[in-house]
Specification:
Strand content: 5-15%
Helix content: 40-55%
Distance between the termini: 46 Å
Radius of gyration: 31 Å
Shape: elongated
Largest sheet: 4 strands, antiparallel
Number of helices: 23
Structural class: alpha+beta
């Protein structure tokens, strides 16, 4: 597989001395004007709009001094159709044809260059998130005189990758930076409201790249570590190479599932041989018998996260012995090679991966060992065991999941709202939460993705506002901020609801670009956490009086992925793919997926119509 790669280098420009100010000023002008820069049109207004007042005023002055300009073809075009485009053409023509006599009578050239809405085309390549002209000298002085640190990032691609993936123009890079400016702010310890940035795209022969300048209006803010740089690299790489990475994720998921299946088969074979007194590894046999005896003395849930430390150590020892199996070792090596491929998209360093027994991605193998040993059918063997200490409650892990344990019966069921139109209605989410019904659980199996599902207090508050028919504009604006804060930390639920919110006019008007961007990120988030969803929730709390198992979380994620395929949210609408995901979820008992599947059968979308 040919490796794509993104290179990110980061440093900061010091402040204080006149020398450092000059360096900042010169650097800003250099990245904005060097020969390979893509010059951007700094007049971003629609060129078919009516001429601006600035243009009209300047043309009056010019025509007064140069009345012969009324004979120009450009003047005829302007009088017939006085647009921004035609006004700019006429202004440029008058100045160019009379440059020798203008002299110091009036600085028309400077006037044209500095007045917003006048110039035909920008003379530099700087851009930021604002749809306003950028005056280079003003920005250069602003950066030069800023009293805090200014960080400079250079983000580079191979030319073949830039062309293949569409990053051979400044607008694509601008949109990329805008999608991840919250990641930059978070990893540079800058409040999003204080962050300022400028960038320029350089279309060089071999490695097209952007220069990105970042700083905070609050001079006390801002701190960038190597870890922060790596996370910024990762955010850009996962976006740019998302299609390339998707095939790696899929192959890696198959490899992971195969390893888990082979481990289960191998271990069940070992246990069967022990029960038949036909096993020739006394060390592993003693460990298994020891674990069996230990588990008989454990009270409460017999899953890895709740076991006393000495029992966990026995499980780990068994896992280590199992990892020596040739088939399992080869499958893990394959998984590791795919993991390394992902990291090579944004770093030249080799990724150091832990031994299989220490890799949290394969935590379910531990629980498989426990379940298999518990199912052994023979008397407890006397094994010398130390007195167990009290069961561990909530180890030192910083990954938590809040999960709804009951539905709010006052809300209309999603089943009553499912339709198959091009635009999904903004409806009450499947899960509505109350503090009494939420549980926080500790997860030993922390997923590799930055994305997660969490029905947090802020998320629940935002949902109440959005689905309240009495909410007004200021309420929706508050909900927007709550969801934005949640989305920056990777909460996929908040990211998708932002996509829904921007697809409506609840904030004043629809914003289709923002809506698609958030839906696209939500889809990516669900796809990333899907492989880990079977152990995101391993402690089986109660739901409506019944034990809720990991499969409930897994089927819920499958349902959400199917839903996004069904409506074309963040991905192409594909009823066949929607059918596949709904079917997987429905077979696990998810009622929303079952209803959605019934609709596909009813209308014949993605599957042959079948009313039965």
């Amino acid at each position: 597989m040919t490796l794509s790669q993104i290179i990110v280098t980061s440093r900061y420009l010091k402040s204080g001395t006149q020398k450092s100010k000059n360096k900042r000023r010169n650097y800003t002008k250099y990245i904005a004007t060097r020969e390979t820069v893509e010059v951007r049109d700094q007049n971003i207004m629609d060129r078919n709009d009516n001429a601006t007042k600035n243009q009209e005023q300047l043309l009056n002055d010019l025509l007064s001094d140069f009345p012969e300009a009324k004979k120009y073809l450009e003047y005829e075009d302007y009088t017939v159709n006085p647009t921004v485009e035609n006004a700019s053409e006429l202004i440029s023509t008058i100045i160019e044809r009379n440059a020798d006599v203008i002299g110091n009578r009036q600085n028309f050239v400077g006037y044209m260059a500095m007045r917003p809405g006048v110039q035909k085309r920008g003379s530099h390549g700087l851009f930021n998130e604002k749809d306003e002209p950028i005056i280079l000298d003003r920005v250069a002085n602003e950066i030069a005189n800023h009293k805090g640190n200014v960080w400079s990032h250079v983000i580079s691609l191979r030319r073949e990758d830039a062309i293949r993936l569409g990053y051979d123009n400044s607008e694509a890079w601008r949109q990329l930076v805008m999608r991840h400016i919250s990641d930059i702010a978070k990893n540079q310890k800058i409040s999003l409201c204080n962050l300022k940035w400028y960038a320029a795209f350089h279309d060089t022969t071999h490695h097209p790249h952007i220069h990105l300048l970042v700083y905070s209006e609050n001079t006390k803010e801002g701190f960038l570590t190597n870890e922060g740089i790596n996370k910024i690299r990762s955010a850009f790489a996962n976006d740019i190479f998302k299609d390339d990475l998707q095939s790696i994720y899929q192959e890696q998921t198959l490899s992971r599932d195969e390893l888990k299946a082979v481990s289960k088969t191998e271990f069940e074979s070992v246990v069967r041989k022990i029960q038949q007194s036909d096993f020739e590894n006394p060390q592993l046999e003693n460990l298994i018998r020891k674990l069996y005896s230990q588990l008989q003395n454990v009270k409460g849930k017999k899953v890895y996260g709740y076991l006393p430390q000495e029992v966990k150590e026995t499980v780990n020892s068994i896992f280590s012995e199992l990892a020596n199996d040739d088939n399992i070792r080869q499958l893990y090596e394959k998984w590791c090679s795919l993991e390394s491929l992902k990291y090579k998209t944004y770093t030249q360093k080799e990724k150091e991966l832990p031994p299989l027994v220490d890799n949290k991605v394969f935590q379910p193998v531990r629980n498989m060992i426990i379940r298999t040993v518990l199912d052994m059918n023979y008397p407890v063997i006397d094994v010398e065991i130390e007195e167990p200490e009290p069961t561990e409650q909530f180890a030192n892990d910083d990954f938590y999941v809040d999960i709804l344990l009951k539905f709010d019966e006052s809300e209309q069921s999603e089943n009553d709202k499912v339709t198959f139109s091009d635009n999904e209605e903004l409806t009450a989410e499947e899960f509505t939460c109350s503090n009494e019904s939420a549980v926080t659980v500790d997860i030993d199996d922390e997923p590799q993705s930055k994305y997660y599902l969490k029905w947090s207090t802020a998320y629940k508050e935002a949902c109440k506002i959005i689905y309240n028919k009495q909410s007004k504009l200021e309420d929706f604006q508050k909900a927007e901020q709550l969801l934005l804060n949640e989305s920056r930390s990777g909460n996929v639920l908040a990211i998708q609801d932002l996509g829904k919110l921007y697809s409506t006019d609840k904030l004043g008007e629809k914003d289709e670009k923002k809506s698609f961007s958030f839906y696209e990120e939500a889809f990516q988030g669900f796809m990333e956490i899907e492989p880990d969803s079977d152990f995101m929730f391993p402690y089986e709390p109660k739901y409506k009086g019944q034990v809720m198992k990991p499969v409930d979380m897994r089927s819920y994620v499958w349902y959400r992925i199917g839903k996004m395929h069904c409506y074309g949210l963040g991905t192409e609408q594909d009823y066949e793919k929607a059918f596949e995901w709904f079917l997987k979820s429905a077979q696990e008992g998810n009622k929303f997926a079952q209803y959605s599947l019934a609709n596909l059968y009813y209308y014949g979308n993605g599957v042959e119509k079948d009313l039965s």
